[in-house]
């Protein structure tokens, strides 16, 4: 995240010439985009945990939330609401919503005294 915020020009120049107009757009947007990494790491860890203990349903649901269900509407709605920066923040917003979902599901499971997403009898 620090590299994306502090040195976006270096990272962009790995893929596209800094003279290209698209490079200027990417250099401006990378710091916004990098905010998603905080939530991304947490979400991937939780999804990986569920996969490792063969809990297919929660792993699949969370993967779909972060990669499709929250992401597509974020890409469509955020630019309309906050302008051009919305495109760069869409991934972050999707990851944030997934993190919130995980925290709520975990909180409910702790409150009820059982693990969320379990089948009855597990």
Layout of secondary structure:
Blueprint: H1 2-6, H2 8-13, H3 21-34, H4 36-52, H5 56-69, H6 71-82, H7 85-112
Number of strands: 0
End-to-end CA span: 39 Å
Domain count: the total is 2
**Classification by helices and strands:** mainly alpha
Q: Name the poorly predicted regions.
A: none
- Taken from the alpha-carbon principal axes, the silhouette is elongated
**In what range is the share of β-strand residues?**
under 5%
Radius of gyration: 18 Å
Give the % helix: over 70%
- Secondary-structure element order, as H and E? HHHHHHH
Main sheet, how many strands, which sense, barrel? Answer: none
Count of DSSP helices?
A: 7
General description of the model:
There is one protein chain. The protein has 122 residues and is mainly α. It folds into two domains: 34 residues, no CATH class; 81 residues, no CATH class. 79% of the residues lie in helices and 0% in strands. The chain has seven helices and no strands. Helix 3 runs parallel beside helix 7. The longest helix is centred in the last third of the chain and has 28 residues. The radius of gyration is 18 Å and the shape is elongated. The mean pLDDT is 90.
Defining traits:
122 residues; mainly alpha; single chain; 7 helices
Brief write-up:
The chain has about 120 residues and is mostly helical. The protein has helices at about 1-5, 10-15, 20-35, 35-50, 55-70, 70-80, 85-110. About 80% of the residues lie in helices and about 0% in strands.
């Amino acid at each position: 995240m620090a590299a994306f915020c502090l040195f976006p020009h270096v990272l962009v120049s790995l893929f596209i010439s800094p003279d290209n107009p698209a490079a200027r757009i990417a250099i401006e947007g990378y710091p916004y985009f990098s905010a998603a990494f905080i939530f991304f790491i947490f979400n991937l860890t939780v999804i990986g945990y569920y996969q490792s203990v063969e809990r297919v349903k929660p792993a699949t649901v969370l993967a779909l939330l972060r990669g499709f269900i929250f992401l597509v509407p974020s890409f469509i709605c955020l630019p309309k609401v906050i302008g051009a920066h919305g495109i760069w923040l869409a991934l972050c917003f999707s990851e944030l919503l997934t993190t919130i979902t995980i925290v709520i599901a975990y909180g409910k499971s702790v409150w009820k005294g059982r693990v969320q997403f379990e089948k009855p009898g597990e």
